[in-house]
Design a protein that fits this description.
Radius of gyration of chain A: 25 Å
Number of domains of chain A: 3
Helix content of chain A: 40-55%
Oligomer: homodimer
Largest interface: A-B, 46 and 47 residues
Shape of chain A: elongated
CATH architecture of the largest domain in chain A: 3-Layer(aba) Sandwich
Number of helices of chain A: 14
CATH topology of the largest domain in chain A: Rossmann fold
Strand order of the largest sheet of chain A: 2-1-3-4-5-11
CATH class of the largest domain in chain A: Alpha Beta
Strand content of chain A: 5-15%
Order of helices and strands of chain A: HHHHEHEHHEHEEHEHEHEHEHEHEE
Distance between the termini of chain A: 65 Å
Chain lengths: 334, 334
DNA sequence: TACTTTGTCTGCAACGATGTATTTCACCAG
DNA sequence: CTGGTGAAATACATCGTTGCAGACAAAGTA
């Protein structure tokens, strides 16, 4: 059997509660007593049973993180940052993969996953604001960067519109006029895709360049999606001199397909992405993209969530933060 | 306050214990009673408090996973697979990033992290077998794929030697004779680096090609490490017609640097890696590499660990499994 | 009829910590 | 010497489950 507080208490000749007090840094303990307890802890190799503490205190010191899939580089990198941010504040992170399915997202918002965590960081992909509000329990919840915008929810936002506009403006400045967009529907206006598309449109309008819906291609936000979309564009004989992948995976897939097809990048066709994943820097040619402020998002989201958990949840003023983005100009679109 | 078993019991007009029995599928319960309890659960929206269950039962239904960093694609992809494998068996995974530091690895083996999990999947990078055995508690532990080999520990192994030999043989078959190796020390014989290096040497020997220590470059197993290593090779005027990165990140970094320097790949210099991360398929040119059986490793490791957790731990026969590997020939080295 | 067996359900204690309320004690002012 | 004060330590209940032992019918056996 494991060593318990009781064992320590006996060894140190104090009450169980005093041991608890020492461990929790209770203010009023005589240094001598404290030392005696500490020695006993050392000697017996005692370690607090976190499960018991959780049951009693109602806190687990764990944050939940719901994302589509860790095998997607952007999420993996974000998760890594979030775990570090949480760790430095004494929290652990329990990751749940939604696989981009509504059922899984809903399950993560409610249910037992919640009971294991003190609060949730959630990157919604299929659920809308109302569904989230309906499904979510009472525990703190912070939405991340992507899909949903709603005045009733705490969130840390990516500047989807502005950053996409910046990318587009950069392509336009390079003399490109026929910029294909990968990963959106022509009519889309909400979610990451919609917001980024609207940024693209706004930049075109600013530059007096006409918007051509034929250059907007719907596909999965993965490398193979990007590759397939570009293949279809080329096969259809569409005329374009640049490709804007709404995330880096799309852009990298497109880049690959273009090169395979013998197109020169950026001479014939420029390519730009969105996310600035590590891979972008080492692509050949290196990928021009926009860094949405991943580290800042992780940091602020964790901070905000923990504030909600530990602070008076009574202060119900919704907080919505925006991360600063930064254009990263590289070889694929100079 | 949350709904407890007691509330359900009252609502259903049975004892608390009966509710517990229903939830745990105890055999002898009259269907009518069972239904009444189930209805009450539904009506009240009861959900088991996992913390309380853990405290009482001593099981958390969580597996720990210790790896260097989720931002490294291979680990992220492996983690994703592991989480899915665990999920399908009713377990969750709690990830801990060691940051490749001995202190963190040790901390994860002992301490509170252990108490949150029923067993541990561990990818050791700095700790040796003896240190692991000394540090580890009594809970089940399965080592993954990489570093350590020891008859006293359960593990699922990558065929480092054989797979590296296969890659080297492939390069040799393509007519390459001066194959640089990135990510190892000349003298190294243990760990992933040592084992892969020895596979490389063996393949050379088999082909009657002389081993040149000057072609073995030590560096960090990251993209920038690979890029830097190749840069140093080129600057030193070394003569080589192929590069074998001991993992894909190294190879991709090297590939990038070679192309930046105007080398033609694979015509002048072939490049091959190890791991077959998703990114390898979409590099330009696509990366020849070896798939170490990631999905199988995840599956078997989880299976083995859960077997240890749930089975009689009394059966102390150490199990060491090997995953099948597969060479993936692509454009960077045909 | 009396006694076991089987099925169904219940009560109590316990997992290992923390919150609240309370007690003990030392110290100092009046 | 008493009373008041605050520091230091303690007692007890409690968080929400599950393990264990037992109660109590109904059914089977002798």
């Amino acid at each position: 059997m494991a060593v318990t507080m009781n064992d320590v208490a006996k060894a140190a000749g104090v009450s169980l509660k005093t041991v608890s007090n020492v461990i929790n840094n209770y203010e009023f303990i005589r240094p001598a007593t404290k030392q005696r307890v500490l020695d006993a802890i050392d000697e017996l190799g005692y370690e607090t049973n976190l499960t018991a503490r959780s049951l009693r205190s109602g806190k687990t010191k764990m944050l939940g993180l719901v994302l589509a899939d860790l095998s997607i580089p952007y999420y993996a990198e974000l998760a890594s940052d979030i775990m570090k941010a949480a760790w430095s504040r004494g929290y652990r992170v329990l990751v749940e993969q939604s696989g981009n399915e509504a059922e899984h997202e809903k399950a993560a918002l409610q249910g037992q996953f919640r009971s294991l965590t003190d609060g949730l960081l959630f990157i919604p992909l299929t659920l809308g604001a109302q569904q989230i509000i309906d499904a979510a329990g009472k525990k703190p919840l912070v939405l991340l960067g992507e899909f949903v915008q709603d005045p009733r929810l705490d969130m840390v936002l990516i500047q989807n519109h502005e950053a996409a506009a910046a990318v587009t403006t950069h392509l336009l400045a390079g003399g490109r006029r026929r910029i294909a967009v990968l990963g959106a529907d022509d009519g889309e206006t909400t979610g990451s895709a919609g917001l980024r598309l609207s940024g693209y449109k706004a930049a075109l309008a600013d530059a007096g360049v006409e918007y051509d819906p034929a250059l907007v291609v719907r596909c999965e936000w993965r490398r193979d999606g990007g590759a397939g979309a570009v293949a279809r564009l080329l096969d259809s004989g569409a005329d374009f001199d640049a490709v804007f992948g709404l995330n880096d995976a799309l852009a990298l897939g497109a880049l690959h397909e273009l090169l395979v097809r013998g197109k020169r990048v950026p001479e014939e066709i420029a390519v730009a992405g969105f996310d600035d994943i590590e891979e972008a820097r080492f692509a050949s040619p290196s990928l021009t993209t926009v860094a949405p402020g991943r580290a800042e998002i992780a940091e602020r989201a964790v901070e905000l969530l923990i504030e909600r958990i530990e602070g008076n949840m009574a202060a119900p003023e919704v907080r919505q933060l925006q991360a600063a983005f930064e254009l990263r100009v590289r070889k694929s679109a100079t």
